[in-house]
Amino acid sequence: MNVNLPQYVAGGDIHAGDRVRYGEKSAVIAYVSDGDTGEFSSGYADYFGSEAGIMLRDDDGEHTFLPEPNEELEFVSR
Known about the structure:
Largest sheet: 6 strands, antiparallel
Number of strands: 6
Oligomer: single chain
Order of helices and strands: EEEEEE
Structural class: mainly beta
Helix content: under 10%
Distance between the termini: 21 Å
Strand content: 35-45%
């Protein structure tokens, strides 16, 4: 399957499970979707078919939805 998922502004594909920094917070990519296909962390498969974008789950359990990546979203590790 050829998936056209978003990329970090600095380069590289965004994947579910990636550790990231968003602003001052550490987070994990809960899901990333192009609107038709995507990658989903455990417990997030119900988001299949959701609008295109990126769902972050920070270390406090809070969720942030980004319709597209921006310069505040920084890759930390995979």
